[in-house]
Amino acid sequence: MLTEEQKNFYDENGYLMVEDVVTAGQLAELRRITYDFIEKSRNVTESNGVYDLDEGHSADAPRLTRIKLPHKQHPYFWDLLKNSAITEVLTELLGPDTMIQTSKLNTKAPGGGAAVEWHQDWAFYPHTNDSMLAFGLMLEDVTEDNGPLMVIPGTHKGPLLSHMANGVFAGAIDPDDPLFEKEKAVTLTGRAGSMTVHHARTLHGSAPNMSDRNRLILFYECHAADAWPLLGAGSYIHSLGQRLLWQDLQERLITGELCLTPRMEAVPVSIPLPPAPDASSIFKTQKSSGVKSAFA
Ligand SMILES: O=C(O)CCC(=O)C(=O)O
Fold it and tell me: Which of 117, 142, 198, 206 for mutating ligand 1's site (highest number of atoms within 8 Å of CB)?
């Protein structure tokens, strides 16, 4: 699926755009399922295990920040990751043995849908090595005005910036951090059906959706099977116990085989503790920590 040039670009820059990675039929089905979920959110009044509600959400005008863990909410999202051109991109970048870390369908509603403050995913879930990435499959066209993802090229090879504010893990950097070179930001716009890839250490963020269109991006966050999570990161897996963890590992395997010998590498890590007052999603973490916004 990927050319040598694309792979080298990703290695060098820590991000990539892959155009038309799904077929028209797959895109139509993804949209149908997604709009069905949005429709069903009309009856929901509080964020729950499926929906993270945005400010102003109501039965008349659904406003979501995200649908949580779509690969667990509908089999189509999981099948697509396991058996499509996306799977090829995954193994070309991470090798034959791959697992899902998490997934989310960020649904930035028109007219101000929440910004995502600048951060490195790696700050949320440090592992024994950084063979980790996020795919962002665009389910609607992503343009300059509907809150596109922005990345700072090359930051996947740099330091882990501080994600602390007011004594808690804020899930965002301070926009005044001297290590934040905002002028280098690249904006990733594209047609529906295209997919961004960003390395877990790549610094990224996105502005509010100022358009009158939805910005729907399906994120799959994946890693090589020999990258093992460090205790203290904000994931349910740390509370499972051995037997349930073993079952969960098998459920998260996308391609190849599980690996019980973690690959240890000299990567910069920091445990994301103490948690923010509300650490139930990145939006809530960033907001409840009181971190300064880069988009205010
Ligand atoms: O939805 C976006 O624009 C970015 C999402 C993101 O970076 C995240 O959820 O970690």
Answer: 206
